[in-house]
Amino acid sequence: MTVHRPAARGTAIGDTHPSLRERVYVELRERIIEAEYPAGMRLVEREVADELRVSRVPVREAMQRLESEGFLSVQPRRGSVVADFGPEDAEYLFDVRENLEGLAARLAARHASPPQLRDLERLLARARKAAESGRLREAVSLNADFHRQIVELSGNPLLVDLMAPLDSRLRRLFRLTSAQSDGEPMCGAHERLYEAVRDRDEDGAEALARAHVADTRASAARLLAAPPGEPEKAS
């Protein structure tokens, strides 16, 4: 699964590949995920086109796609605004994740090849190093990559296709809650899941994946429900 990153600031979107339409979509999506476009911000097609130095057509198409994916919403007299991501949205996401990621972990334990396992181990080492060095944003990004890799290791193309639309929402959720969370516990949970996959423990891998989703669900619910600026209370 290829993940396209936003263009460097100051670079005309039209100067890069893949297609202009896809580049505009990825750029706007990444700005929403990274909270450069925060929830409630109004996006005006003409202004966005001027900012990205492209025509309004690819911007319009990208915004329509983002609306269909729940990143933008159309409000009366305001037009397109960045959609909020609250506790209820997280609950919907976690309901789906718990079942599909549990299945993905079980299938990964069954199908992952030795080279794939080595790649996964290297990814975990990078995430651990980032967390221990205090580079939380990098650790969160790498841990999101870990979830994506487990799905790919399932060897089930239909499952990969089903999970792909959730990936960006998951990254946005991690980004919204990462500032107040600790990357190291997440690394530990992923390392235990990796060991189960490596050891071909299908039941254990599924159970660990489901437990990990349940843990992150509880933490995210507390953080998203807390008033802005209020620190999370210890449970």
TrEMBL record:
It comes from the Bacteria. Residues 18-85 form the HTH gntR-type domain. The keyword Transcription regulation applies. Coiled coil: none annotated. Keywords: DNA-binding, Transcription, Transcription regulation. SMART domains: FCD, HTH_GNTR. Transmembrane segments: none annotated. InterPro entries: GntR_C, TF_FadR/GntR_C, Tscrpt_reg_HTH_GntR, WH-like_DNA-bd_sf, WH_DNA-bd_sf. The keyword DNA-binding applies. This is GntR family transcriptional regulator.
